[in-house]
Amino acid sequence: MSTTSLSTRSDGARRRGPSLDVAVVGGGMVGAAAALALARAGFATALLDARAPAPWQVTDEVDLRVVGLAPSSIALLDELGVWASIRQARSSPYAHMHVWDAENGAAIDFDAATEHRELLGYIVENNLVQWTLWQALDAAGVRRLCPAEVRGFEVREERIQLDLLHAESSGVDQAYGGPLSARLLVAADGAGSPLRQLAGIATRGRDYTQRAIVAHVVTERAHQKTAWQRFLPSGPLALLPLADGRSSIVWSLPEDEAQQVLALDDAGFLNALGVASDFRLGRITATTPRAAFPLKLQLAERYQADRFVLLGDAAHAVHPLAGQGVNLGLRDVAELRDTLVAAREAGRDIAAAQVLRRYARRRRSADTLDALGFDALARIYAWQAPPLVAARGLGVRVLDRLAPLKRRIAGHAAGL
Ligand SMILES: Cc1cc2nc3c(=O)[nH]c(=O)nc-3n(C[C@H](O)[C@H](O)[C@H](O)COP(=O)(O)OP(=O)(O)OC[C@H]3O[C@@H](n4cnc5c(N)ncnc54)[C@H](O)[C@@H]3O)c2cc1C
What we know:
- This protein has a domain at 9-55 and 131-203 and 297-375: FAD/NAD(P)-binding domain (3-Layer(bba) Sandwich), CATH 3.50.50.
- The protein is built from 12 helices and 19 strands.
- The chain has helices at 9-15, 29-40, 71-79, 83-89, 126-137, 194-198, 255-263, 266-276, 325-345, 353-380, 386-401, 403-414, and strands at residues 20-25, 45-48, 66-69, 92-94, 96-101, 107-111, 121-125, 143-156, 159-169, 180-187, 203-219, 226-232, 235-241, 247-254, 284-287, 291-300, 304-305, 308-310, 316-317.
- Strands 5, 6, 11, 12, 13, 14, 15, 16 and 19 form a 9-stranded mixed β-sheet that branches. A 5-stranded mixed beta barrel has the order 1-2-8-9-10. The protein has a 3-stranded antiparallel β-sheet with strand order 3-7-4.
- Helix 2 (29-40) packs parallel to helix 5 (126-137) and helix 2 packs parallel to helix 9.
- The chain is globular.
- The site of flavin-adenine dinucleotide has 33 residues, from helix 2, strand 3, strand 8, strand 11 and helix 9.
């Protein structure tokens, strides 16, 4: 790890190529996709991250973190030229979703065929998506600086200058030198976003005081390319189909119950999981080690500041019950790219306040509606008073029969 001291801008300018249009901080799935999309759209782009993703290999055990990618996300990754390799490397298409209520038995089904689509989405490993995006950065001309952490930033005239704690760059960047400055700073540095805090942007939301336990499990019966989700009074349990026939679980539980489940030995865990899933896929016979993630609803009060925007989890963290976090983040990416391209075509400064406001307004209202919708679902499924449980059951049964409304919900989740 080397430390890059900040030299004056003119020193650096002599040694570098075209000055940066955009610096993206955070190379998770969303930030890496943003850097690639912006570079492909012709913007001089750098990507900075505190650490590089671990290399992904097909011989590796399936990453414990998986996501369900909606068609809108697949379309973006395809446009960026990385989807074919992700799909071929290891991915699991699913064509059905079955959601049911532990309290009243009411169920709702979503089926790709009735939506006139081949699939509802794909389950993929976070690490595979991130790694594949990183592999495409050099060819797209993205300057990678890693490890690099942003300590502060300052707007000077028409640029934003970053104060880096340390920066190591790939070969492409050796010639870069000097302090890093760009016309626009994009913060994709995750839910804890240090950059959002540096920009003084507050968040609102709530702590679910729940943890999501994740593991990959072997079930007695096949998953049938179906994403299963059972709502229990304690929280939802999802079983997502993996390519090797196992299912990946996301089991949301109150903190204390999650601690108890994490402390169980494997036999106890498999049994508890079987009961929680109502043995829908039969007995659960084997599991990987488990991991757990705290859950919160967090929305940034603004997505934009002077020459600065937020995207991905830095802007919005949502409950995983709808499996939409990264899908929202990738919609932010597409919107930001389109907004900046339109500004450039109109001969405007890509980081002008009106330009960034347009991105921020569109994405913040869409993300807020979705986040509050997922939160409402979490609240409704937490109802335990018998009349409310009965009303919920009635509502779900009616909804399951209302094909046009169901189609709208499925289309919205798909990002179509
Ligand atoms: C249990 C669980 C299940 C989920 N399932 C789904 C699903 O099915 N579908 C779905 O769409 N979403 C799902 N999500 C949500 C999804 O995982 C997140 O929305 C997504 O990973 C966020 O990506 P990101 O790139 O915005 O942030 P992150 O993945 O958090 O990446 C942030 C990056 O910023 C870097 N960074 C942080 N600080 C700094 C700094 N100071 N300087 C430089 N770099 C920095 C980090 O190293 C990291 O690489 C799930 C989440 C959980 C917890």
